[in-house]
Design a protein that fits this description.
CATH class of the largest domain: Alpha Beta
Bound molecules: zinc ion
Number of domains: 2
Organism: Virgisporangium ochraceum
Domain Amidohydrolase-related: 53-391
Strand order of the largest sheet: 3-2-7-16-17-18
GO molecular function: hydrolase activity, acting on carbon-nitrogen (but not peptide) bonds
Largest sheet: 6 strands, mixed
CATH architecture of the largest domain: Alpha-Beta Barrel
CATH topology of the largest domain: TIM Barrel
Protein name: Amidohydrolase-related domain-containing protein
InterPro entries: Amidohydro-rel, Metal-dep_hydrolase_composite, Metal_Hydrolase, Metallo-dep_Hydrolase
Number of helices: 11
Strand content: 15-25%
Distance between the termini: 28 Å
């Protein structure tokens, strides 16, 4: 049975000019055609969404389904056994999907639970996004997020073994903790964890097994190590020092030269009375300056959420991200929309299936009120969601 989705206009994931009066024809979970002002074929079931704008389902390239978006997600996690945790992860997956997030890349779970969820959601597209999963991130002894279970003893051989274990489990991506992080007491965001030869061994082993890699890296040494090791993506990339942000122009040029995208985990959903941690708030203007330098160097900036790590990071916060790119980086709305659709899909290795509304792509389609190409805030006014061509019942 073919499905024809009609609406007022459409952003295809790439073009700055909308398609007016679109008809998206879907068959077997894939888009077979996108027309403008065309009549749906007689045999198709027609869904008319009126004046809404159709956009590609959003791709969140950095999430943590195991974290609960409280002020202390780490302690909370240690209170939960796997069954209870998996139930919470299912609820978060539903919350994300209802906001139009049809694909998430989980960059750190406990006990490979996100892989179990991935397999469940593959069987029921209305229950959550498509999941790409890293399992427990690979880290050093008592290193960043060690409590998720991904500690290694150190040295290239141990890191290779950790990659092989994940490949055997069936992960989609390998996550490497190249520096400490804000969430983990006893680690420092500005300090490198692994040496270059350890990261290079991980990347080599992952690539040999057909897996992409992405590195959590704040401090410049960690970023430089990740670039030298040949990682496929860098998360955060903040050039953090002990108390400031200090961009290194030569390193920025090296990131650009290598074509490595930066995952800017900036999306957050405003909550009355809640502000980001004071340390981050203080650094914010400097981080904005840094990201403008990334833009100027031609580095692809993917907008993601890191959802779960704090109160502003609810599982449905990604659609708020593009507005921040427009406000802080001065992005054109179309660029900001690409950062959560086609560009995010490319960075996740899904550029031929996700992030665009075009023939041959998965029928992950979101309808929003208003015109996000004029104001990306419209992305948060979701009126309909389809994943793999199946309409998702939305909570009222
Ligand atoms: Zn993260």
């Amino acid at each position: 049975m073919k499905l024809a989705i009609r609406a007022g206009r459409l952003f295809d994931g790439v073009a700055a000019e909308p398609v007016e009066h679109p008809v998206v024809l879907v068959d077997g979970g894939r888009i077979v055609a996108v027309g403008s002002g065309t009549e749906p074929p007689a045999e198709a079931e027609v869904v008319d969404l009126g004046a809404a704008t159709l956009v590609p389902g959003f791709v969140d390239s950095h999430v943590h389904l195991v974290f609960d978006a409280s002020t202390d997600p780490v302690s909370r996690l240690s209170d939960l056994d796997d069954d209870l945790l998996l139930d919470e992860m299912r609820a978060r997956a539903r919350q994300a999907l209802a906001a139009g997030i049809t694909t998430v890349r989980d960059l750190g779970d406990r006990g490979y639970l996100s892989l179990r969820l991935r397999d469940e959601l593959a069987a029921d597209p209305t229950a959550g996004p498509q999941v790409l999963a890293a399992g427990p991130p690979i880290t050093t002894g008592r290193g960043h997020c060690w409590f998720l279970g991904g500690e290694t003893t150190g040295g290239p051989d141990a890191v290779r073994a950790a990659v092989r274990e994940r490949a055997a489990r069936g992960v989609d991506v390998v996550k490497l903790m190249a520096t400490g992080g804000e969430l983990t007491p006893g680690t420092s965001s500005h300090l490198a964890q692994f040496a270059v030869d350890e990261l290079a061994a991980a990347v080599d082993e992952a690539h040999r097994l057909g897996l992409p890699t992405t590195a959590h890296a704040h401090g410049a040494t960690g970023i430089a190590n990740a670039v030298a090791a040949g990682v496929d993506m860098i998360e955060h990339g903040t050039f953090m020092t002990a108390d400031s942000i200090e961009p290194d122009p030569a390193l920025i040029a090296a990131i650009a030269e290598a074509g490595i995208p930066i995952g800017a985990t900036v999306a957050q959903k405003p909550k009355p009375g809640v502000t980001p941690p004071p340390r981050i708030l203080k650094l914010l203007p400097l981080i904005v300056g840094l990201f403008r330098e990334f833009r100027a160097a031609g580095i692809p900036i993917v907008c993601s959420s890191d959802f779960g790590i704090g109160p502003l990071k609810e599982p449905d916060c990604l659609p708020y991200g593009p507005t921040q790119l427009v406000t802080f980086l001065g992005d054109a709305p179309a660029d900001a929309l690409r950062a959560v659709t086609s560009l995010a899909a490319d960075a996740c290795g899904l550029g031929d299936r996700k992030g665009r509304l075009a023939a041959g792509f998965d029928a992950d389609v979101v309808a929003v009120d208003g015109d996000p190409l004029a104001d990306p805030a419209a992305l948060t006014a979701v009126t309909a969601v389809f994943r793999a061509g199946v309409r998702v019942p939305l909570p009222r």
